[in-house]
């Protein structure tokens, strides 16, 4: 039986013919009634389909609080200081950052205003109630005509959900994967010439970076990141941009290790990456693909921001004092279960094969890069890097 999202996708294909995978993904995740991310069900939690770092344990937010405070101090402690969060969910990360600031005795806790950007209205309602209970002021994110804010733009596991174009190299040329209805009536794929100019531009860029694609290779390209970077550039008068996500620099992302691409789906904590996975239970499973951090860095620079550095999530957290935060919390726990939960969360946050291997990219406007930002001060010994 077709889901609401699949019905909408089929109608789109009937109207336009085969559609780019990016259009399929945008509807599967964001359709107003039947999209994966617009549903009432809570997704990134233990009972949901996957577990993000903020939902795993508040120590993640407590560590990021130190990077946020570091940026604030470098900027001369402006007030208000706006935390713009893309893909804010129910506000779990922002609340952990606030709690971390309070725990550290940082005066930034009093200056913080929270501007969440979240397409799910159910999550936004929860977020408002939780923020109000915690004494965190929620403000509307500035519109394009409003005055830009001084603050931090945060995006944890947000960009990987933005639609990607899917490509496959055939007869020596990248062809675009389009989603269509096959002769058997099921959703399937057809290859076509890449028509979208933004897509062709991204492909030319791969050539300029010296990346050679090979026959049969599948890859994802996300032009939507450019529009996102421009929006961030307009929103932020001065401050820090911190992106944490599944990702890799272009040379790694499109290199020999990943000839099948990075497209992955999640449902009920089961990851499936086979070519048919996105077309099963449309609107009820998450679809993600790694973020190209080289393209993201270029897009942010193109939007007028300075690139401050890139590191792994594990290194970011250690640089922010995760060990000391762990010790502080260990000294306070009263139950064995709490102690075990804390230890296991820290292991997962640092494990390079899990959340620790995520990439963190830091950019900014009006922020001194020297001495290095707190989150960029630690490098793992080489043997422990992925
Ligand atoms: C993987 S979840 C991550 C949530 C949270 N940042 C975390 O780390 O737990 C992605 C979030 O981004 C939201 N989202 C996806 N696409 C969006 C868009 N175009 N605009 C705003 N929010 C979006 C989803 O509704 C979801 O809450």
Write up this protein.
With 386 residues, the chain is of the alpha/beta class. 38% of the residues lie in helices and 23% in strands. It contains 14 helices and 17 strands. A 7-stranded mixed sheet has the order 4-3-2-5-10-17-16, with helices on both faces. Strands 1, 6, 7, 8 and 9 form a 5-stranded antiparallel sheet that branches. Strand 12 and strand 13 form a beta hairpin. The protein is globular and about 65 Å long. It starts with a helix and ends in a 21-residue tail after the last strand. The relative contact order is 0.15.
Please state the CA-atom Rg, rounded to the nearest Å: 21 Å
Spans where pLDDT lies below 50 across 5 or more residues: none
- Category by helix and strand content: alpha/beta
The kinds of small molecule bound in this structure are: S-adenosylmethionine
Strand residue percentage: 15-25%
Strand order of the largest sheet: 4-3-2-5-10-17-16
Question: What is the gist of this entry?
Answer:
The protein is of the alpha/beta class. The protein has helices at residues 4-16, 21-30, 53-56, 59-74, 92-104, 108-111, 121-134, 197-208, 224-235, 250-253, 293-302, 313-319, 322-332, 336-350, and strands at 19-20, 81-86, 112-117, 137-138, 149-156, 165-170, 173-181, 187-192, 218-221, 236-245, 247-248, 264-267, 270-272, 286-288, 291-292, 306-312, 359-365.
């Amino acid at each position: 039986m077709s889901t609401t999202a699949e019905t909408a996708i089929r109608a789109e294909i009937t109207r336009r013919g085969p559609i780019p995978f990016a259009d399929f993904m945008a509807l599967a995740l964001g359709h107003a009634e039947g999209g994966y991310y617009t549903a009432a069900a809570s997704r990134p939690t233990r009972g949901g389909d996957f577990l993000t770092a903020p939902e795993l344990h508040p120590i993640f937010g407590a560590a990021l609080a130190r990077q946020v405070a570091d940026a604030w101090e470098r900027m001369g402690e402006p007030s208000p200081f706006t935390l713009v969060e893309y893909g804010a969910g129910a506000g779990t990360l922002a609340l952990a950052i606030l709690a971390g600031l309070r725990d550290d005795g940082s005066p930034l806790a009093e200056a913080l205003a929270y501007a969440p950007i979240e397409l799910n209205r159910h999550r936004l309602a929860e977020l408002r109630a939780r923020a109000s209970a915690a004494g965190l002021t929620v403000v509307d994110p500035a519109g394009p005509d409003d005055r830009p804010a001084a603050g931090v733009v945060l995006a944890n596991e947000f960009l990987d959900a933005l639609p990607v174009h899917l490509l496959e190299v055939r007869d020596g040329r990248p062809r675009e994967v389009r989603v269509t209805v096959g002769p058997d009536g099921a959703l399937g794929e057809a290859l076509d010439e890449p028509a979208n100019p933004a897509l062709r531009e991204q492909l030319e860029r791969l050539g300029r970076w010296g990346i050679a694609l090979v026959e049969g290779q599948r890859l994802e390209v996300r032009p939507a990141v450019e529009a996102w970077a421009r929006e961030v550039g307009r929103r932020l008068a001065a401050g820090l941009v911190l992106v944490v996500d599944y990702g890799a620099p272009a040379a790694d992302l499109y290199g020999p290790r990943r000839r099948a691409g990075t497209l992955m789906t999640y449902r009920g904590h089961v990851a499936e990456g086979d070519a048919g996975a996105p077309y099963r239970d449309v609107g009820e499973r998450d679809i993600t693909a790694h973020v190209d951090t080289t393209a993201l860095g270029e897009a942010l620079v193109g939007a007028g921001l300075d690139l401050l550095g890139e590191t792994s999530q594990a290194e970011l957290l250690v640089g922010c004092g995760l060990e000391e935060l762990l010790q502080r919390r260990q000294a306070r726990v009263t139950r064995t279960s709490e102690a075990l939960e804390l230890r296991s969360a820290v292991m997962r946050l640092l494990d390079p094969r899990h959340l620790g291997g995520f990439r963190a990219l830091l950019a900014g406007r009006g922020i001194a890069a020297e001495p290095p930002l707190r989150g960029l001060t630690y490098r793992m010994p080489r043997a422990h890097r992925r």
